[in-house]
Amino acid sequence: MTTSAPRTCKNAEVSTLNPDDLLILLAVSHTGRFTSAAESLNLNHTTVSRRITALEKSLGGHVLVRASGGWELTQLGGRAVAAAERVATALAILAGNDDDGSPVAGVVRMSATDGFSAYIAAPAFARLRRRHPRLTIEIVAATRRASQTRSGLDLEVVVGEPQVHRAEAMRLGEYMLGLYASRDYLAETPAPLSVDEASEHPLVYFIDSMLQVDSLDAPRRLLPTMKDSLSSTNVFVHVEATRAGAGLGLLPCFMADRHEDLVRLLPEAIAERLAYWLVARPDSLRQPAVAAVVAALREATTAYEDDLLGKRISRRRQAPG
Q1: What is the rounded radius of gyration, in angstroms, for the C-alpha atoms of the chain?
Q2: Of 276, 293, 311, which one is at a domain's C-terminal end?
Q3: Does any domain span residue 30?
Q4: Which residue stretches of the chain are H helix?
Q5: What does the pLDDT profile of the chain (321 residues) look like in tens digits?
Q6: Which domain holds residue 76?
């Protein structure tokens, strides 16, 4: 019996696979772009493209496909990146840069909303890096729907349950939007005693025409007649504009409650609960560094929810009657 030519050829190609090509693919997977990968590796764009082509020839299939935001891994590419992570870890151990042999190393890139990035993700990642100093985390602050391609991203954190394909989505936890005003604003304007009275005040919130997240549009149904006074795509602008007296702000309670000059209004009537969801490709979740980041995020959001629940119970106990 003779061996078929295609099988012999394919085995010969895999045997000549260059590990350096795997590391180049790993760099491309972090950014979704050849140019960015080339800069990080001190190579030129042409070399990156040529080495990816050589890798695809060795593996007998495409490892990348072009997407709207850059390059996205194919199923074969995901397996190749998993192998590349192991190669990178082995090289680090041999070089003496990973004394404990931990596979939690490399770059993890995540997109998330501004408030979540600053107050939940950043402290969690600081704690994580103290345990894994060879881990680098990049946060792209954005308030948007989950991408259908996730090119250049390992993880996304979005508001509201996402509808995604070829990805896994998991609920992290919830937060609350409340209505706030500054003490200076209330010194000049009587505090509203009802939703109808609140509707007569100017609103500080997202730019309606640019808001991409349906869940964040839901609070407007509570105050449909409020007129925007100052709007922005950045929630930190909402907080500071409300503190400056631009109007009543619909703000995340975990951000607004940090400021003693802000007063929450109508907490029983306006208390919109919104959920954070995490989205990632299955091949990304299998990478030790990504898995460690996901665990840190879940731990941080659970701690936040436990703290929020404790405050709710405390307020109920302090309530008269």
Answers
A1: 24
A2: 276
A3: yes
A4: 5-15, 19-31, 34-41, 45-59, 75-94, 114-116, 122-131, 183-188, 195-198, 214-217, 235-243, 253-256, 282-285, 288-318
A5: 333 334 434 444 455 788 889 888 888 887 778 887 888 788 888 999 999 999 999 999 999 988 766 788 888 887 888 788 778 767 766 665 544 556 787 888 899 999 999 999 999 999 999 999 988 999 988 877 666 555 567 899 999 888 777 778 899 999 999 999 999 999 999 999 999 999 999 999 998 878 777 778 877 788 888 999 999 999 999 999 999 999 999 999 999 999 999 999 999 999 999 999 999 877 778 788 889 999 999 999 988 777 665 555 455 444 444
A6: 1-101
Nearest CA to 215 out of 265, 272, 269 is that of 272
CATH of the domain at 257: 3.40.190.290
Indicate the number of domains in the chain: 2
DSSP code at position 155:
E
Can you tell me whether residue 233 is helix, strand or coil?
Answer: coil
Listed residue (257, 236, 241) closest to 115, CA to CA: 236
Question: Both 93 and 185 in a single domain?
Answer: no
Distances (CA, A) of 314 to 284, 304, 311, 318, 320: 40, 15, 5, 6, 12
Query: Residue 70 is which amino acid?
Result: G
**Are 186 and 166 spatial neighbours (Cβ–Cβ below 8 Å)?**
no
DSSP 145: P
